[in-house]
Design goal:
This protein is an alpha+beta fold and 203 residues long. It has seven helices and seven strands. A seven-stranded antiparallel sheet has the order 1-2-3-7-6-5-4, with helices on both faces. Strand 2 and strand 3 form a beta hairpin. It is globular, with a radius of gyration of 39 Å. It starts with a helix and ends with a helix.
């Protein structure tokens, strides 16, 4: 009986000691977890919290419904040079102004000189209204103004010499691009440009 009592007392003493030790265990720091979480959150961007840039809206282009025979008629082409005829394999090259015209639903045309092999490209577009001024600003920085293509400001004409001379003309909503190895100077393209401008509907 005494031994039982002694074991009981010993068990109670051990339990009391355990309770005391538990009570003396330092409490967890509440800020440790919050600080770690904040640090972890700072190292990984939250896509939902990052604003997505809104692209600048662009107005749509106006389709040009003219055919190549209306851009330059057969009679006008013959008067310019009777050796020129339609180039059946023509397609505007990537990265060219003519390709930009095509992308903006314009008309792109080409005629080939059957004697010299020179190709004349003429393209007509009605670009998005919010892009027209930028095209003019670019043209004036890379080419020389040519007042003989038309009277400014109703008509703004530019010529850029090179292996292939390049013409840009702006009239109202229209943007005319012409390019050819036959255009050595602005006057070489003038007769065709007068024909094209005369064939364009009023804008």
């Amino acid at each position: 009986m005494q031994q039982h009592t002694a074991r009981t007392l010993a068990a109670l003493a051990i339990a009391a000691a355990a309770v005391t030790l538990v009570g003396c265990t330092p409490a967890a720091k509440p800020n440790a977890t919050a600080s770690s979480s904040a640090h972890a959150g700072g190292s990984t961007a939250d896509p939902a919290a990052t604003p997505t840039p809104t692209p600048t809206p662009t107005l749509p282009p106006t389709p040009v419904t003219l055919t190549c025979d209306q851009v330059v008629t057969a009679d006008q082409l013959y008067a310019y040079n009777p050796n020129f005829s339609t180039d059946p394999g023509y397609a505007p090259g990537d990265g060219t102004l003519e390709k930009q015209v095509a992308d903006w639903k314009g008309v792109t045309c080409a005629w080939k000189n059957q004697t010299s092999g020179d190709v004349v490209q003429i393209a007509v577009a009605m670009p998005p209204a919010d892009r027209l001024e930028g095209l003019k600003n670019t043209a004036i920085t890379v080419a020389q103004p040519v007042p003989t293509y038309g009277t400014p400001p109703q008509v703004e004409g530019y010529f850029k010499p090179g292996t292939a001379g390049q013409v840009q003309i702006f009239r109202g909503k229209y943007w005319v691009v012409a390019e050819s190895t036959a255009f050595f100077e602005p006057g070489d393209a003038a007769p065709l440009m007068q024909s094209v401008l005369g064939n364009l509907p009023a804008s």
